[in-house]
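Changelog note: in this version the structure field was regenerated for every chain. One regenerated record is shown below for reference.
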Amino acid sequence: MNETKELSALFHLLDDPDQEVYNTVANKISLYGKQIIPNLENLWETIIDESVQERIELLIHRVHYEDLQQCFRDWLLQDTPDLLEGAMLAANYQYPDMEARRITTEIDRIKRNIWLELNNYLTPLEQINVLNSMIYNYFGLKGEEVSYQRKYQFFINQVIDAKRGNPVTNGIIYQALCSMLDLPVYAVRIPRQYILAYFDTFIDFSYPVNPEDYKIMFYIDPIQGQIYTQQDVDTYLKRINVNKDDAFFRPQTNRQIISFLLREMAKCFNDTKEVYKPDELQNLADIITED
Protein backbone atom coordinates (compact mmCIF):
# COMPACT_ATOMS: atom_id res chain seq x y z
CA MET A 1 0.00 0.00 0.00
CA ASN A 2 1.07 3.61 -0.49
CA GLU A 3 3.07 4.96 2.42
CA THR A 4 1.29 7.98 3.90
CA LYS A 5 2.87 10.59 6.16
CA GLU A 6 1.16 8.99 9.15
CA LEU A 7 2.48 5.55 8.23
CA SER A 8 5.98 6.89 7.66
CA ALA A 9 5.89 8.54 11.08
CA LEU A 10 4.75 5.30 12.69
CA PHE A 11 7.55 3.36 11.00
CA HIS A 12 10.11 5.83 12.33
CA LEU A 13 8.88 5.16 15.86
CA LEU A 14 9.35 1.38 15.67
CA ASP A 15 12.81 1.74 17.22
CA ASP A 16 11.58 3.83 20.16
CA PRO A 17 13.13 2.42 23.37
CA ASP A 18 9.98 3.26 25.35
CA GLN A 19 7.91 0.06 25.36
CA GLU A 20 4.69 1.99 25.90
CA VAL A 21 5.35 4.12 22.82
CA TYR A 22 6.20 1.03 20.79
CA ASN A 23 3.01 -0.75 21.90
CA THR A 24 0.91 2.23 20.81
CA VAL A 25 2.69 2.36 17.45
CA ALA A 26 2.34 -1.40 16.91
CA ASN A 27 -1.38 -1.24 17.72
CA LYS A 28 -1.93 1.51 15.15
CA ILE A 29 0.07 -0.28 12.46
CA SER A 30 -1.77 -3.57 13.02
CA LEU A 31 -5.08 -1.81 12.32
CA TYR A 32 -4.06 -1.54 8.65
CA GLY A 33 -4.42 -5.31 8.33
CA LYS A 34 -2.70 -7.61 5.83
CA GLN A 35 -2.25 -4.86 3.26
CA ILE A 36 0.51 -3.37 5.43
CA ILE A 37 2.69 -6.51 5.39
CA PRO A 38 4.59 -5.74 2.12
CA ASN A 39 5.50 -2.32 3.55
CA LEU A 40 6.78 -3.92 6.75
CA GLU A 41 8.78 -6.47 4.76
CA ASN A 42 10.37 -3.68 2.71
CA LEU A 43 11.13 -1.76 5.88
CA TRP A 44 12.77 -4.83 7.43
CA GLU A 45 15.21 -5.01 4.49
CA THR A 46 16.39 -1.44 5.09
CA ILE A 47 16.96 -1.87 8.84
CA ILE A 48 20.38 -2.84 10.22
CA ASP A 49 19.46 -2.99 13.91
CA GLU A 50 18.55 -6.63 14.71
CA SER A 51 16.35 -5.67 17.65
CA VAL A 52 14.23 -3.47 15.38
CA GLN A 53 14.14 -6.23 12.76
CA GLU A 54 12.82 -8.58 15.44
CA ARG A 55 10.11 -6.06 16.34
CA ILE A 56 9.08 -5.88 12.69
CA GLU A 57 9.02 -9.68 12.40
CA LEU A 58 6.77 -9.96 15.44
CA LEU A 59 4.54 -7.21 14.09
CA ILE A 60 4.19 -9.01 10.74
CA HIS A 61 3.31 -12.19 12.64
CA ARG A 62 0.76 -10.29 14.72
CA VAL A 63 -0.97 -8.92 11.61
CA HIS A 64 -1.04 -12.40 10.05
CA TYR A 65 -2.37 -13.89 13.27
CA GLU A 66 -5.17 -11.36 13.68
CA ASP A 67 -6.19 -11.97 10.07
CA LEU A 68 -6.12 -15.74 10.66
CA GLN A 69 -8.43 -15.39 13.65
CA GLN A 70 -10.97 -13.67 11.42
CA CYS A 71 -10.52 -16.35 8.73
CA PHE A 72 -11.41 -19.02 11.28
CA ARG A 73 -14.47 -17.04 12.38
CA ASP A 74 -15.55 -16.83 8.73
CA TRP A 75 -14.92 -20.57 8.34
CA LEU A 76 -17.28 -21.23 11.25
CA LEU A 77 -20.07 -19.37 9.44
CA GLN A 78 -20.29 -22.15 6.83
CA ASP A 79 -23.21 -24.54 7.33
CA THR A 80 -20.67 -27.36 7.39
CA PRO A 81 -17.13 -25.99 7.78
CA ASP A 82 -14.93 -27.72 5.21
CA LEU A 83 -12.36 -30.05 6.78
CA LEU A 84 -9.57 -29.54 4.25
CA GLU A 85 -10.04 -25.78 4.34
CA GLY A 86 -9.80 -25.87 8.14
CA ALA A 87 -6.53 -27.83 7.97
CA MET A 88 -5.13 -25.32 5.48
CA LEU A 89 -6.10 -22.43 7.76
CA ALA A 90 -4.29 -24.19 10.60
CA ALA A 91 -1.19 -24.54 8.41
CA ASN A 92 -1.44 -20.83 7.57
CA TYR A 93 -0.42 -20.10 11.15
CA GLN A 94 3.14 -21.29 10.46
CA TYR A 95 3.10 -20.79 6.68
CA PRO A 96 1.16 -17.57 5.94
CA ASP A 97 2.34 -17.55 2.31
CA MET A 98 1.19 -21.11 1.68
CA GLU A 99 -0.48 -21.70 -1.69
CA ALA A 100 -3.82 -23.31 -0.85
CA ARG A 101 -4.60 -23.88 -4.53
CA ARG A 102 -1.60 -26.18 -4.93
CA ILE A 103 -2.90 -28.38 -2.11
CA THR A 104 -6.49 -28.50 -3.36
CA THR A 105 -5.24 -29.31 -6.88
CA GLU A 106 -3.24 -32.28 -5.58
CA ILE A 107 -6.13 -33.56 -3.45
CA ASP A 108 -8.50 -33.19 -6.40
CA ARG A 109 -6.10 -35.19 -8.59
CA ILE A 110 -6.13 -38.05 -6.08
CA LYS A 111 -9.92 -37.82 -5.81
CA ARG A 112 -10.38 -38.11 -9.58
CA ASN A 113 -8.21 -41.22 -9.72
CA ILE A 114 -10.16 -42.84 -6.89
CA TRP A 115 -13.49 -41.90 -8.48
CA LEU A 116 -12.52 -43.66 -11.71
CA GLU A 117 -12.04 -46.91 -9.77
CA LEU A 118 -15.23 -46.73 -7.70
CA ASN A 119 -18.64 -48.04 -8.72
CA ASN A 120 -22.00 -48.76 -7.08
CA TYR A 121 -21.36 -52.49 -6.96
CA LEU A 122 -18.41 -52.32 -4.57
CA THR A 123 -18.93 -53.18 -0.91
CA PRO A 124 -17.80 -50.62 1.71
CA LEU A 125 -14.67 -52.67 2.37
CA GLU A 126 -13.90 -52.85 -1.35
CA GLN A 127 -14.39 -49.08 -1.61
CA ILE A 128 -11.87 -48.51 1.18
CA ASN A 129 -9.42 -50.91 -0.46
CA VAL A 130 -9.59 -48.71 -3.58
CA LEU A 131 -8.93 -45.61 -1.46
CA ASN A 132 -6.02 -47.27 0.31
CA SER A 133 -4.45 -48.32 -2.97
CA MET A 134 -4.70 -44.81 -4.41
CA ILE A 135 -3.69 -42.90 -1.27
CA TYR A 136 -0.84 -45.08 -0.02
CA ASN A 137 0.42 -46.70 -3.24
CA TYR A 138 -0.43 -44.35 -6.13
CA PHE A 139 0.07 -41.06 -4.25
CA GLY A 140 2.62 -42.63 -1.90
CA LEU A 141 1.43 -41.15 1.40
CA LYS A 142 3.39 -42.54 4.34
CA GLY A 143 2.46 -42.40 8.01
CA GLU A 144 4.35 -42.07 11.27
CA GLU A 145 3.27 -42.07 14.89
CA VAL A 146 2.76 -38.62 16.38
CA SER A 147 6.01 -36.88 17.33
CA TYR A 148 5.97 -33.30 18.60
CA GLN A 149 9.63 -33.00 17.57
CA ARG A 150 8.57 -33.46 13.93
CA LYS A 151 6.21 -30.53 13.73
CA TYR A 152 5.98 -30.67 9.93
CA GLN A 153 3.68 -33.69 10.42
CA PHE A 154 0.92 -31.36 11.60
CA PHE A 155 0.93 -28.93 8.66
CA ILE A 156 -1.10 -30.13 5.70
CA ASN A 157 1.08 -28.35 3.12
CA GLN A 158 4.21 -30.05 4.47
CA VAL A 159 2.45 -33.42 4.54
CA ILE A 160 1.40 -33.08 0.89
CA ASP A 161 4.93 -32.01 -0.13
CA ALA A 162 6.77 -34.69 1.86
CA LYS A 163 4.02 -37.31 1.39
CA ARG A 164 4.47 -38.13 5.04
CA GLY A 165 2.13 -37.31 7.90
CA ASN A 166 0.87 -38.58 11.22
CA PRO A 167 -2.50 -40.16 12.11
CA VAL A 168 -4.15 -36.73 12.46
CA THR A 169 -3.07 -35.15 9.17
CA ASN A 170 -3.26 -38.39 7.21
CA GLY A 171 -6.72 -38.86 8.71
CA ILE A 172 -7.81 -35.39 7.64
CA ILE A 173 -6.66 -36.03 4.07
CA TYR A 174 -8.37 -39.44 4.07
CA GLN A 175 -11.64 -38.13 5.49
CA ALA A 176 -11.65 -35.12 3.15
CA LEU A 177 -11.34 -37.47 0.17
CA CYS A 178 -14.15 -39.66 1.52
CA SER A 179 -16.36 -36.60 1.89
CA MET A 180 -15.67 -35.58 -1.72
CA LEU A 181 -16.52 -39.12 -2.85
CA ASP A 182 -19.70 -39.37 -0.75
CA LEU A 183 -18.40 -42.09 1.55
CA PRO A 184 -19.64 -41.97 5.20
CA VAL A 185 -16.25 -41.97 6.92
CA TYR A 186 -15.70 -39.91 10.08
CA ALA A 187 -13.11 -39.60 12.82
CA VAL A 188 -13.96 -41.12 16.20
CA ARG A 189 -12.48 -40.65 19.68
CA ILE A 190 -10.80 -43.94 20.52
CA PRO A 191 -8.45 -43.21 23.49
CA ARG A 192 -4.81 -42.54 22.54
CA GLN A 193 -5.57 -43.10 18.86
CA TYR A 194 -6.72 -41.07 15.88
CA ILE A 195 -8.97 -43.50 14.04
CA LEU A 196 -11.54 -43.21 11.25
CA ALA A 197 -14.74 -45.24 11.07
CA TYR A 198 -16.93 -46.27 8.14
CA PHE A 199 -20.54 -45.65 9.21
CA ASP A 200 -23.65 -47.26 7.78
CA THR A 201 -25.16 -43.82 7.10
CA PHE A 202 -24.22 -40.19 6.61
CA ILE A 203 -24.28 -38.04 9.73
CA ASP A 204 -26.26 -34.81 9.83
CA PHE A 205 -24.37 -32.72 12.38
CA SER A 206 -27.03 -30.01 12.34
CA TYR A 207 -28.94 -32.25 14.77
CA PRO A 208 -27.75 -33.90 18.01
CA VAL A 209 -25.96 -37.14 17.14
CA ASN A 210 -27.75 -40.15 18.62
CA PRO A 211 -25.78 -43.46 18.78
CA GLU A 212 -29.00 -45.34 18.01
CA ASP A 213 -29.17 -43.67 14.59
CA TYR A 214 -25.99 -45.17 13.19
CA LYS A 215 -23.74 -48.20 13.24
CA ILE A 216 -19.99 -48.43 12.66
CA MET A 217 -19.14 -51.09 10.08
CA PHE A 218 -15.35 -51.07 10.57
CA TYR A 219 -12.42 -48.82 11.48
CA ILE A 220 -9.53 -47.44 9.45
CA ASP A 221 -6.08 -46.54 10.78
CA PRO A 222 -5.03 -43.57 8.61
CA ILE A 223 -1.31 -44.19 9.10
CA GLN A 224 -1.36 -46.83 6.35
CA GLY A 225 -5.04 -47.78 5.92
CA GLN A 226 -5.12 -50.83 8.20
CA ILE A 227 -8.70 -52.08 8.74
CA TYR A 228 -9.95 -52.98 12.23
CA THR A 229 -13.16 -54.64 13.40
CA GLN A 230 -15.24 -53.74 16.44
CA GLN A 231 -13.73 -56.74 18.19
CA ASP A 232 -10.23 -55.40 17.48
CA VAL A 233 -11.17 -52.08 19.07
CA ASP A 234 -12.81 -53.76 22.07
CA THR A 235 -9.67 -55.86 22.59
CA TYR A 236 -7.53 -52.73 22.42
CA LEU A 237 -9.66 -50.98 25.06
CA LYS A 238 -9.31 -53.97 27.39
CA ARG A 239 -5.55 -54.01 26.83
CA ILE A 240 -5.21 -50.38 27.93
CA ASN A 241 -7.68 -50.90 30.81
CA VAL A 242 -10.29 -48.43 29.55
CA ASN A 243 -13.98 -49.13 29.94
CA LYS A 244 -16.04 -48.94 26.77
CA ASP A 245 -17.93 -45.66 26.36
CA ASP A 246 -20.39 -44.50 23.68
CA ALA A 247 -18.41 -41.25 23.42
CA PHE A 248 -15.48 -43.17 21.90
CA PHE A 249 -17.60 -44.10 18.89
CA ARG A 250 -19.33 -40.79 18.30
CA PRO A 251 -18.43 -39.17 14.95
CA GLN A 252 -16.42 -35.98 15.31
CA THR A 253 -17.47 -32.75 13.61
CA ASN A 254 -14.99 -30.91 11.41
CA ARG A 255 -14.83 -28.19 14.05
CA GLN A 256 -13.80 -30.73 16.68
CA ILE A 257 -11.16 -32.22 14.38
CA ILE A 258 -9.54 -28.87 13.55
CA SER A 259 -9.68 -27.79 17.20
CA PHE A 260 -7.84 -31.01 18.11
CA LEU A 261 -5.30 -30.43 15.31
CA LEU A 262 -4.54 -26.92 16.62
CA ARG A 263 -4.09 -28.17 20.19
CA GLU A 264 -1.72 -30.86 18.95
CA MET A 265 0.22 -28.24 16.96
CA ALA A 266 0.58 -26.19 20.14
CA LYS A 267 2.61 -29.01 21.71
CA CYS A 268 5.27 -28.71 18.99
CA PHE A 269 6.60 -25.29 19.99
CA ASN A 270 8.90 -25.19 23.01
CA ASP A 271 11.76 -23.05 21.73
CA THR A 272 12.29 -19.86 23.74
CA LYS A 273 11.93 -17.80 20.55
CA GLU A 274 8.51 -19.34 19.92
CA VAL A 275 7.21 -19.25 23.48
CA TYR A 276 4.12 -17.29 22.40
CA LYS A 277 3.01 -19.82 19.77
CA PRO A 278 1.39 -22.48 22.01
CA ASP A 279 -0.89 -19.86 23.55
CA GLU A 280 -1.83 -18.47 20.14
CA LEU A 281 -2.65 -21.92 18.77
CA GLN A 282 -4.67 -22.76 21.88
CA ASN A 283 -6.55 -19.50 21.38
CA LEU A 284 -7.38 -20.44 17.78
CA ALA A 285 -8.63 -23.81 19.03
CA ASP A 286 -10.78 -22.03 21.61
CA ILE A 287 -12.32 -19.86 18.87
CA ILE A 288 -13.67 -22.91 17.06
CA THR A 289 -14.37 -25.22 20.01
CA GLU A 290 -18.03 -26.15 20.15
CA ASP A 291 -20.07 -25.43 23.24
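Spot check on this record: The chain has two domains: 5-76, 99-144+153-253. The CA atoms of residues 4 and 177 lie 47 Å apart.
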